[in-house]
Structure formats: structure tokens, C-alpha cells
Amino acid sequence: MTRFQLRRAMIAGVAMIAVAGVSAPASAQFFGGIVYDPTSYAQNVLTAARSLQQINNQIQSLQNEASSLINQARNLASLPFSSLQQLQGQSQQTRQLLSQAQRIAYDVQQIDQAFTARYRGADLNASDQTLIANAKERWETSVGGFEDALKVQAGVVGNLDGAQTAMANIVGASQSATGAMQVAQAGNQLLALQSQQIADLTALLAAQGRAQTLEAARDAATEAQGREQFRRFMTRSGN
Questions:
Q1: Is the pLDDT assigned to residue 153 strictly greater than 80?
Q2: Nearest alpha carbon to residue 106 among 223, 25, 207
Q3: What is the pTM of this model?
Q4: Which residues fall within 8 angstroms of residue 20, CB to CB, at 6 or more apart?
Q5: What contacts 19, CB < 8 A, 6 or more positions away?
Q6: Which residues contact 158 (CB under 8 A, 6 or more apart)?
Q7: Alpha-carbon torsion 206, 211, 215, 217, what sign?
């Protein structure tokens, strides 16, 4: 018999006793010098039954409150795993590779100065040695750009293993989550992982775009310099 069924049986028994007491004669009876009042006895039994029911209700209320507190504690518990430090380390490595860009870095002022000096047409007053030196500088810058792009590619590929490990750990932690906060934190870490991968992809596209742009600029400058050198050759030949 369950606790609930036992409780109902006790209450029913008390009620039967109370009814029996009420149906008995209302007058007091004497038993061995003790006065027995069935009406008073029935009232006392009913009062005790009501008190017992109130106590049971209070116990049930306390149990419900305890369960609620336990659920709240679970919902407020933090996820025991965090991949933030690992993801930040991978992002820092990618930023370091970008900051190591050779010759022309990712700086607007530096780019403007370099293009003014070596890319925007051939200086008609520059010497042949200066033209050759500028051409060499542009070639070395283009080679450096492609090298930088390869380094960033290697760094992004190297981050894939770490990203896979982080994803496995996050998913494992989310599957064993016991509360709303842990579920939310697991979701936030998955978003952080996705953001880190998008940042790597952005860095890779930036490095590749930089290398291709430098090469295209070198081709344009080489064409302009070739025209100037041809003009000088024809001028000297005409003399």
C-alpha cells in the first residue's frame, strides 16, 4: 500500500469513529469513575483529523518548494566546460599571422604611401636605376603577399583540429546539461566556435585578396613603366 493510500485509510477510519461517536447517545457515561462524553470525543477526533490533514498539506507544500528550489539550482548551474580560452588562442594566432604581413601591411596610410611611391605610374623624372629598383620592390612585395597568404592558409588549416575538438567537447557537455543555463551556455559556445571559424575564413579571404591585389597592381605598374622605358629608348634612338 502506498503512502497516499495509507493516509486516505487513516482519515476514513477517523471519520468512521467520529460518525460512530456522534450516533451514540449524547449523554456522558461513567466508566470506572471516568466521565466519557462521546460528543466531545468525536469533536476531538475530528479536530485531530483536520490537524493531520493540515500537516500533510504543509509537508506536501514543503516538498513542492524543495523540488522547485532543486530545479532552480539546476537551471542556474554553470556548464562545467568552457572552450572560450581555446577559441581565443586560435583567433590570436590568426591575428598574429595577419600582423606579420611583409612590406605593405594592412594599414591604409602605409598602403597609400607605397602606391604613391611605386605603383601609380612611372615617374618621368626618375632615373633608370630608380625605375629598376621600384620594379624589383614591387616584385618582392607581390612574392611576400603570396607567402603571407600561404601562412594564413596554413594557420587556418591548423585551427581545424582544435575546432573539431572544441565542437566535440561542447556537444558532449550540452548533452549532459541539467539546466536551462547550461543549455544556453553550450549554445553560446557553439556560436563562439562558429564566429571563430568565420573570423578565420575572413582572414584567409583577406590574405588571398591582398596577394591578388598586389599582383594586379604590380602588373599595372609594370605596364606603365614599360611604356616609359620604351619612350626613353625611342627618344635616345632618335638622337
A1: yes
A2: 207
A3: 0.58
A4: none
A5: 42
A6: 93
A7: positive
